[in-house]
Task: inverse folding
């Protein structure tokens, strides 16, 4: 009986041993289908990512957006990133990525990722573009730790734009040390807030699946060049100046800040600071006053202007890297808030890439207000990373700066006087041009101190108007009829019976109304201006 039982047991063991098993490991990543060169017409043969696209496709990790296109420059969504992470884990563990269909399509991958601990909770919007930081967190969790051994010497704190306090730091360092990530430049910058393209993802996912494709790098922590606030102010305040704008009559109409770019007086400020200027003067940190001789280049959309200050021997600012900033990094602002020149404030980058109306801003808690426009936003080493330009009204330390890399788009040009600027509006005397003829309709300038502008439009008619960006938040303006200048060519409050039930401020040009982005809420006989994004 014992011999019979032993024989049966041995037979059972042999039977079990004959069943094929899929063991976890890199060997499970094998070609499941073939890629034909030129299959994706938008993947050039010589593109740096072309081989990665082919391998990722053959492994069944990434498909094209259509049968013939891959869209390598398209940003990856969070849903696509979760699918990739789920497929990586499933193939590594079982040799296959067999997922059932679901609605929405990504639900089956998200459920798997939740079960496997790849993600801790659902994303609020799976259709949003994945940032590089989010992608790194997903991929660091997609494979077990022993599948991502460290092969590189990357010291803590060596990745310039990854703060050790950030939630994604451990994941990024893990992938750098494993040779999956290498950074975007020679210094190893990661650009955590940037989106990631499908071409980049193809390279990363194949390095995850094939150890032989991983890269060798060494990143050592650089010497800390951070300055104390006292030293930073001493170094940088001579580079920042107070600027005052005058109309044709020599009246001061606006003020702001500016930053020297060269010792010979080339400087930058916001376009909205000099808009409509007939002349301008600046005052440096040592109290000396200089004339502004003109403008090299300006861009209304970028809200930047490159100007020339008469003089020499100025202290130019050092320009830092504003392309790969880290949220949470320490920053300083120097400017002239409310006309108080050489004011220093500090804070952090609360969002390294805040996009508003298609333009990128640096969102910071460093305090700025009216008069700060055109000033300097500096990193902890005293390098210019942005031009302070705006704040969000009603927010708590929600301040915005234009990244310094936009200066490259501004370009250079021949020096022009303020009077010679093509299309530039000019300030005019509000009482003479507008107000007297429409009494008792209130004059905006009288209530707010905002200058009146004139401009010849394409119809050949001289138009007068107010720039609402210069109006302070919370100003109460009594409204009764026209508050502009020329009939059918000025500002007017539209009665509720004429519109859709809401009182709005319109600009009338030849009888056609153009709604401005500023609403008026009627309360009795008064109206309150609501300006969400204030120019500083």
Result:
């Amino acid at each position: 009986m014992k011999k019979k039982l032993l024989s049966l047991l041995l037979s059972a063991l042999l039977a079990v041993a004959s069943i094929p098993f899929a063991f976890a490991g890199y060997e499970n990543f094998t070609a499941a289908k073939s890629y034909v060169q030129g299959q994706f017409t938008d993947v050039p043969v010589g593109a740096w990512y072309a081989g990665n696209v082919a391998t990722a496709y053959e492994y069944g990790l990434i498909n094209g957006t259509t049968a013939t296109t891959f869209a390598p420059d398209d940003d990856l969504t969070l849903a696509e990133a979760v699918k990739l992470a789920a497929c990586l884990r499933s193939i590594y563990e079982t040799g296959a990525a067999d997922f059932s269909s679901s609605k929405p399509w990504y639900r089956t991958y998200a459920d798997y990722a939740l079960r496997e601990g790849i993600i801790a909770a659902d994303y609020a919007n799976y259709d949003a573009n994945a940032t590089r930081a989010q992608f790194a967190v997903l991929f660091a969790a997609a494979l077990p730790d022993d599948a991502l051994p460290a092969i590189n010497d990357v010291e803590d704190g060596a990745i310039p734009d990854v703060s050790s306090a950030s939630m994604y730091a451990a994941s990024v360092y893990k992938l750098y040390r494993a040779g999956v990530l290498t950074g975007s430049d020679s210094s190893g910058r990661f650009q955590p807030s940037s989106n990631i393209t499908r071409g980049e993802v193809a390279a990363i996912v194949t390095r995850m699946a094939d150890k032989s494709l991983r890269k060798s790098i060494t990143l050592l922590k650089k010497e800390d060049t951070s300055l104390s606030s006292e030293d930073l102010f001493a170094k940088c305040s001579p580079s920042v100046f107070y600027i005052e704008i005058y109309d044709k009559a020599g009246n001061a109409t606006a003020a702001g800040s500016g930053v020297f770019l060269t010792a010979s007086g080339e400087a930058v400020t916001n376009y909205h600071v000099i808009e409509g200027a007939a002349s301008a003067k600046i005052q440096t940190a040592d109290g000396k006053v200089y004339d502004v001789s003109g403008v090299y280049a300006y861009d209304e959309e970028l809200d930047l202007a490159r100007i020339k200050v008469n003089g020499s021997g100025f202290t130019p600012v050092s320009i830092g890297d504003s392309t790969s900033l880290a949220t949470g990094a320490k920053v300083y602002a120097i400017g002239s808030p409310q006309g108080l020149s050489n004011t220093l404030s500090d804070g952090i980058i609360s969002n390294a890439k805040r996009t508003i109306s298609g333009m990128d801003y640096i969102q910071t808690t460093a305090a700025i207000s009216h008069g700060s426009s055109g000033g300097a936003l500096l990193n902890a080493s005293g390098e210019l990373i942005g031009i302070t330009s705006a704040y969000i009204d009603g927010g708590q330390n929600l301040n915005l700066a234009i990244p310094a890399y936009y200066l490259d788009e501004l370009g250079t040009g021949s020096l022009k006087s303020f009077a010679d600027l093509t299309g530039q509006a000019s300030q005019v005397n509000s009482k003479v041009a507008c107000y007297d003829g429409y009494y008792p309709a209130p004059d905006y300038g009288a209530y707010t101190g905002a200058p009146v502008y004139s401009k010849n439009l394409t119809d050949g008619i001289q138009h007068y108007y107010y720039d609402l960006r210069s109006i302070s938040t919370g100003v109460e303006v009594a409204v009764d009829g026209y508050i502009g200048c020329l009939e059918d060519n000025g500002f007017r409050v539209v009665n509720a019976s004429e519109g859709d039930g809401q009182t709005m401020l319109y600009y009338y040009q030849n009888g056609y109304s153009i709604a401005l982005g500023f609403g008026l809420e009627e309360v009795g006989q008064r109206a309150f201006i609501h300006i969400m994004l204030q120019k500083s």
Summary: Residues 247 and 521 are 32 Å apart (CA to CA). The mean pLDDT is 77.
